[in-house]
Design a protein that fits this description.
This protein has helices at 11-27, 39-44, 68-75; strands spanning 2-6, 32-36, 52-55, 58-62. It has 79 residues and is α+β, with helices and mostly antiparallel strands. It has a single domain (2-75), classed as Glutaredoxin (3-Layer(aba) Sandwich). Strand 3 (52-55) and strand 4 (58-62) form a beta hairpin.
Length: 79
């Protein structure tokens, strides 16, 4: 599963990446985390406020650090 953390590298963006990695590890879900710092690429995804998260190329969150419970919902397999 590919997860993109979008942001310029601020402390909130770094925390978001850390939370995604920790949550995936706790759930036993294999993820590929990509940090996207290019503002043109971020804007092209429709992000107006960072940090933002995209899962499988779909924007799922933006504007603040997500809660661990939110991350779990994105990473848990459907079914």
């Amino acid at each position: 599963m590919k997860v993109q953390v979008l942001g310029k590298g601020c402390s909130k963006c770094e925390l978001t990446e850390k939370l995604v990695r920790e949550t995936a590890e706790r759930l036993g879900v294999e993820v590929e985390v990509e940090k996207v710092t290019d503002m043109q690429a971020i804007a092209a995804m429709g992000v107006m406020s960072t940090p933002a998260v995209a899962v499988g190329g779909k924007l799922v969150h933006s504007g603040r650090v997500p809660l661990p419970e939110q991350i779990e919902g994105w990473l848990k397999p459907a079914g």
